[in-house]
Amino acid sequence: MYPHANPQALDLLGKLLAFDPAKRISCEQALSHPYLAVWHDPSDEPVCSSTFDFGFEEEDSVEGMRQLIVDEVNAFRHAVRSQARAAGAARRQDPLPVPSRDDVINSPLSEKAPANGATSSYTRDSGRVPSPVVDDPSADLVRELEQHNLGRIDECGGKGRMYSYAPLTAFEAELFSACTYEQEHEQHYQMSFFNYAYTVPFPKNSKISWAQAFEALRHKAREPMAFVPVIASCEVLEENSKYIKRKVALKTGLEMTEDIDLYAPSLITFKSNTGAFVTNLISENAEGERFLTFTFLMPLPGVEPGSEAEATRKKEMKEASKGAVAQSLKVTLEMFEEGKLN
Question: Out of the domains of life, which is the source (predicted)?
C-alpha cells in the first residue's frame, strides 16, 4: 500500500496494531523502538506504573461513591504527606552552621525585641505552620454537604428533591437535574400556548417569482414594521446571508430578541427569547398555485389553560395573526409592483 514507507515505521505500526493483545507492544516498548530512537528520552517520558482502575463506574449508590471519594482522598494524603515527611527529614539532616559567640553578641536587636534580650522568635506561636495531622476526609465531605444544603428549599412537590442557590456537589447533581426536568415539564404542560397557522394565496395572475417573494420576506425580517403593524421598531444586531439577529419592540411595550434563520427560497424561522416560534413559508399545490403560510407557537404566561381569559386571548391573537399574513402578502405585492424586488 505504501511502497516507499520506512520499514522501521511499518514494523512499529504492525506491532502497535497487532490483533492479538499478547503480541501488541506497550507504550514504553513503542518508545524504545528504533524508529523512535531519535525522539526517545527516558528522563522526559512518564511511565504509568499501574493500569488505571475504572471500577468506580460500576458504583451506583451515593454512599458507595462517597466512600470511594474518601478512600481516594486518604490515599492521596498518604502519598503527599509521605513525600513531605521525607523532604523534612532530609532538611533536618543538613548540617547547620553554629554561630560563634561574637556573631550572637554582634547580631542586631529588633526594636520590638522582648526586655529579656531574646533575639529569636522561633518559639513564638504566631505565624508558624501547624504540623500536619492525620484526619478523616469523610468529616470534611460531610461538612461540605451540610454547607451546600444551607438555604435550600424544597420546590419539587414534597418529593425531597431540592433547588440549590449554591454550587451542587457531585452527589446531588443527578437529583437536581431530575428535579428541574420534572418541574419544567410540569410547568410546560400547565402553561397556555397559542398554536395557529394561516394561509393566503398569491393572486393567480401575479407575475412575482419565487425568489422575489422570498426577497420580500427577507426584507420583512430586517424591517418588519410595514408587514406587521403591531411592531413599533426593529434593530438588526447581526446579519449574514442565512441568519439575522434582531431586537424588536411591540406597540404594547414588549421587547424581544429574535434569531432568524433563512432557508431560501421558501422558509424563514423566527425564534424569540420569549419562547415564541414563528415560521414564514412559501409553498405551492399540485396545480402550481402559490401560497404564503405563517405558523405561530407562542406561550401565554399568566393565562390559565381552559379559562375564559385564554379563549378571549386566543381569539384576539388569531385575528391579529390573520391580519399579519394578509398584510405581509399585500406589502410583498406592492414592493413587486414598485420594482423593489428586482
Answer: Eukaryota
